[in-house]
Specification:
Structural class: mainly alpha
Radius of gyration: 24 Å
Number of domains: 2
CATH class of the largest domain: Mainly Alpha
Distance between the termini: 9 Å
Largest sheet: none
CATH topology of the largest domain: MetI-like fold
Number of helices: 14
Order of helices and strands: HHHHHHHHHHHHHH
Strand content: under 5%
CATH architecture of the largest domain: Orthogonal Bundle
CATH superfamily of the largest domain: MetI-like
């Protein structure tokens, strides 16, 4: 197992280097002048030359990349142009909020997707199977932002059951409590969970059908095992593939909830990057994308480790 983990770590390092290079080059070709943004319209040519030299923008691109990579290794992700503060604390606070939303959405997607997939596979030809398949198809097809707007109109603004946006109330008896946070989580969490829920449900259904048609299932039936135990054995065989797709969907949630965060004004990393793009705040954009990429690589490493623990063949 140690060798397996070392191999996965060895693959993660070049992946992160490749991601950092793509981020650095992409930010450099994005329209916008960070020097002009920092100095403002009244900056003199002398001040512009001085600031360009201070930021290292007068150096060749490879030198700029190596210098930036060295600063990133020391935890220095630059300084926000709009906020005039270090980008790392600002981005990290937003990333923590995104993790909260993503974990809630992931729990809904995994539990709901597994339940729908198992029902669709074990109730073939019945109404429950058709309903489960229809719900999973709708979840994959429906745009998250459209569903989010519908939920806001009918359940938040119309019924008043949930807040229309934000992460916490600023006034009231329950302001800042866990119950307040959960009330704010429901609508954006359900909207963000739709696509992962549908994908997991379809994967579970397909894997369960393959497992139930395997020879070992007939052998278990011939031995007189109860049907629920046979289905449990079949479900256990689907766990490695389900774990892989679930891990990918959690990684997708960390970087793909930007539309949900914007619709619900959730103060997460997606909303911060979206606002920074309109402000041409390149250091924050760069830091936000880098943190998301790092989180995705770490999640894949964890999923690979769990996959190796469940299936010894993977370790070989």
């Amino acid at each position: 197992m140690i060798r397996f983990l070392l191999r996965r770590l060895g693959l993660a390092v070049p992946t992160l280097l490749g991601v950092s290079l793509v981020i650095f080059v992409t930010i450099r070709i994005v329209p916008g002048d960070p020097v002009a943004s920092l100095l403002g319209p009244t900056g003199s040519p002398e001040a512009r030359v001085e600031l360009t030299h201070k930021l290292g923008l007068d150096q060749p691109i490879p030198v700029q990349y190596v210098t930036w990579l060295g600063r990133v290794g020391q935890g220095d992700l630059g300084r926000s142009i709009a906020k005039q503060t270090d980008a790392l604390p600002y981005v990290w606070e937003a990333f923590r909020n995104t993790i909260t939303l993503s974990l809630f959405a992931a729990a809904v997607a995994i539990v709901g997707g597994i339940a729908l997939g198992v029902i669709a596979a074990t109730r073939r030809g019945k109404v429950a199977s058709a309903i489960s398949s229809g719900v999973s198809l709708f979840a994959v097809s429906a745009p998250q932002y459209s569903v989010g707007l519908i939920l806001i109109v009918y359940l938040a603004a119309g019924r008043g059951w949930f807040p229309t946006g934000g992460m916490r109330n600023t006034t009231g008896a329950d302001a800042g409590t866990v119950a307040d946070l959960i009330r704010h989580l429901w609508l954006p969490g359900l909207s963000a969970a739709l696509v992962p829920l549908g994908i997991i449900a379809r994967m579970v259904r397909s894997s369960m059908l393959d497992a139930l048609s395997a020879d070992f299932v007939e052998a278990l039936r011939s031995r007189g095992l109860p049907e629920w135990k046979i289905r449990w054995h079949a479900f256990h065989n689907t766990l490695p593939s389900v774990l892989t797709i679930a891990g990918l969907q959690v990684g997708y949630l960390l970087g793909g909830v930007i539309f949900v965060e914007v619709v619900f004004s959730w103060p997460g990393l997606g909303l911060v990057v979206f606002q920074s793009i309109s402000q041409r705040d390149l250091p924050v954009i760069q830091a936000g994308v880098l943190v998301s990429a790092l989180a995705f690589v770490v999640i894949n490493l964890i999923v690979d480790t769990l996959h190796g623990l469940l299936d010894p063949r993977i370790r070989r």
